[in-house]
């Protein structure tokens, strides 16, 4: 039931705040992480020295996003690999490897095969899943469910923000068990996460109409590029995937630092480029670098659409459109920056008269390899 919304995707984007809030609910108390599903597994988490995150599509971008927080908080090296690539090489894994799988459906065959393969190789497995009782969690040593609620639209939206949230909780849990973060730092991280739902709601209230309107003006666009750095990089990839999937427009995401290494050759007058701008308060240096990337593409005629925090005036001289997100710590920015990109993809596909819930050639759950 679409509950009065024009599509399941519109409904599910509107549910992004709850998806985060429900995934957090009941999993912390007084600044301490308390994940009931992970009770009794302290030895498992104490005994690992490597984490490999496996997933496909949007779930893999949630993994790429969480890698930064996971490494920062736990000081365990984290790799992120597409499940189908991981499965068909000869990865070095063993009892001190933790393989974390991420899957909304819990039925993605590529991810399931990767988890089975990891277990056969002696690795420990945790799955992040949105569907109770699905196959992948049954194959894993532990499960952390995302509580995003059923996701019907083929394009994954609310599950993505819930996956990042669950991965952050898992990383905080692991750092708590291993003592790699102070109690204060863990309590601060939980506070930041708890503030996210209201901030997403703010974006939906303040920016949705504006984004849908300019997405409508862009209905004839043939290609859109997305740039981001650090945690903004996987968000750029996610923005591009969503656009390809439902609007059938060529889209690519790049790490902003790669521009000079090739992609800048694509820039010609009128080329739309989304840029995820990191907060200048959180990292002045990274902010400066991204602004200079913007200047470079602008000088070549790009039409620049920035996603930037409220009050960041440095982007104004070079931006054709500014999409504002509320202030948040650097690791939490992706949970906000992705929201305008979800709205944009949906707005553009709708303007083209396409079925946003059922894009051509795609299935919600890919149960074949
Ligand atoms: O159910 P899963 O999370 O395992 O699905 C993984 C991908 O197939 C999925 O995220 C896909 O990329 C989405 N359609 C993206 O919007």
List keywords for this structure.
five-stranded parallel beta sheet, 17% strand, 369 residues, alpha/beta, binds 5-amino-5-deoxy-1-O-phosphono-D-mannitol, 12 helices
Provide a short characterization of the protein structure.
This protein is of the alpha/beta class.
Could you explain the architecture of this structure?
- The chain has 369 residues and is an alpha/beta fold.
- It contains twelve helices and twelve strands.
- The chain has helices at 8-14, 16-24, 42-46, 57-74, 83-87, 109-120, 135-138, 158-178, 183-217, 232-247, 284-299, 333-351; strands spanning 28-29, 32-33, 50-55, 78-82, 97-103, 124-129, 142-145, 223-228, 250-255, 272-276, 303-309, 321-325.
- The protein has a five-stranded parallel beta sheet, sandwiched between helices. It has a five-stranded parallel beta sheet with strand order 9-8-10-11-12, with helices on both faces. A two-stranded antiparallel sheet has the order 1-2.
- Strand 6, helix 7 (135-138) and strand 7 (142-145) form a beta-alpha-beta unit.
- Helix 4 (57-74) packs antiparallel against helix 10, helix 8 (158-178) packs antiparallel against helix 9 and helix 9 (183-217) runs parallel beside helix 12.
- The two termini are 30 Å apart.
- The site of 5-amino-5-deoxy-1-O-phosphono-D-mannitol (M6R) has 16 residues, from helix 4 and helix 10.
């Amino acid at each position: 039931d679409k509950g009065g919304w024009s599509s399941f995707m519109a409904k599910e984007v509107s549910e992004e705040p709850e998806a985060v809030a429900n995934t957090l609910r009941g999993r912390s108390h007084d600044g301490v992480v308390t994940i009931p599903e992970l009770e009794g597994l302290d030895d498992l988490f104490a005994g690992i020295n490597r984490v490999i995150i496996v997933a496909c599509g949007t779930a893999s971008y949630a993994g790429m996003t969480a890698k930064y927080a996971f490494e920062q908080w736990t000081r365990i090296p984290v790799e992120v690999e597409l499940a189908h690539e991981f499965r068909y090489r000869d990865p070095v894994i063993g009892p001190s490897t933790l393989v974390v799988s991420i899957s909304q459906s819990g039925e993605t065959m590529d991810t399931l095969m990767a988890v089975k393969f990891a277990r056969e190789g002696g690795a420990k497995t945790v799955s992040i899943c949105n569907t109770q009782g699905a196959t992948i969690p049954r194959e894993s040593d532990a499960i952390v469910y995302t509580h995003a609620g059923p996701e019907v639209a083929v394009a994954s939206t609310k599950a993505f923000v819930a996956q990042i949230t669950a991965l952050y909780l898992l990383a905080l849990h692991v750092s708590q068990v291993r003592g790699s973060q102070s109690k204060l730092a863990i309590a601060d991280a939980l506070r930041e996460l708890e503030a996210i739902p209201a901030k997403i709601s703010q974006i939906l209230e303040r920016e949705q109409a504006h984004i849908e309107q300019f997405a409508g003006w862009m209905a004839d666009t043939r290609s859109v590029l997305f740039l981001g750095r650090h945690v903004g990089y996987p968000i750029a990839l996610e923005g591009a995937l969503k656009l390809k999937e439902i609007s059938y427009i060529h889209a690519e995401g790049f790490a902003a630092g790669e521009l000079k290494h090739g992609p800048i050759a694509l820039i010609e007058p009128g080329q739309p480029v989304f840029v995820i701008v990191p907060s200048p308060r959180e990292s002045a240096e990274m902010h400066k670098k991204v602004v200079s990337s913007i200047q470079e593409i602008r000088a070549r005629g790009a039409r620049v659409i920035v996603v930037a925090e409220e009050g960041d005036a440095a982007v104004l001289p070079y931006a054709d459109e500014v999409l504002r997100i509320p202030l948040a710590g650097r690791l939490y920015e992706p949970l906000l920056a992705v929201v305008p990109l979800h709205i944009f993809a949906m707005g553009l596909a709708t303007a083209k008269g396409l079925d946003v819930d059922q894009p051509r050639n795609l299935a919600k759950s890919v149960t074949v390899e």
